[in-house]
Amino acid sequence: MIAREFAEDIVLDEDTAHPKLFVSDDGKRVEYLSRERAVPESPGRFTSLRAVLGRNSFSSGHHYWEVDVGGNEIWTVGLCSDSVNRELHFEDIHPENGFWNISRTFNNYQALYRSCFDFKVAAPPLTVGIFLQYEQGLISFYDVKQFRILYTFIGNFTQPLRPCFLLKSPHAALTILPV
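Below the sequence we write its predicted structure tokens.
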């Protein structure tokens, strides 16, 4: 896959993590906790969405990374503008608010717009590849094992974008994989 030529070392930004999310010491794994933990105040921290951003910020070029979604039946991955409102709710995740994400809720897969777009998958992906082509306005999501595009957003990016990860169910986890 040509996208792998643009592999990035994505590291999670603990200062953006919702209090119910735990980020591993190496910044490669996020887990959903059953209780909120005490965290220092941070202007970049999510307060409603169970979300965390990557430290990486992209305002040009091509960038690719892979996320192990494993056996999780509920997850959301993608990108968002660095300046998104950290107090939004899940129904507010769409391009008009600076989010370009896909989501799985059991056997339902969606590209998140104001009116969500459902798409079909042959089998639940274990690893999702995310490929940003900033100047072209493209964000593509791949089922890495099947070498298949799951969905592509077409947009016009005017602000720096950061990787975005959301979890909504206890004991779920996402892991950023080396490419």
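The chain has no helices and 13 strands.
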